[in-house]
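Input record (one chain):
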Amino acid sequence: QVQLVESGGGLVQAGGSLRLSCAVSGGTFSSYLMGWFRQAPGKEREFVAGIKRSNDTTLYADSVKGRFTISRDNAKNTVYLQMNVLKPEDTAVYYCAANARFLFLTRSRTTYDYWGQGTQVTVSS
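The corresponding structure, as predicted from the sequence alone:
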């Protein structure tokens, strides 16, 4: 059974930084496309960033491009999301997700097969 566990969330002031981690177990991490999504209160879950298996291709939502960086360490079965210049509108529960079926990155949450439980990120103004 594939399990994803996020960590690194918390409370930060606007302009600050956080680094989220997602540890994956029970599957073949290096074969998964990985993604980060977020969900703010009253809003739908939205795509934030994705990374291909070989770490050479990434995809970002326009709202985070230039501020967030996704990376992965296949030796540690872990994907990261470095978040810089955080804004109050970045406040949300952040989820990591694994896509086991596709060969290309997608923004659609329906294409991701496995999900973590989420970690709260709160950015104060």
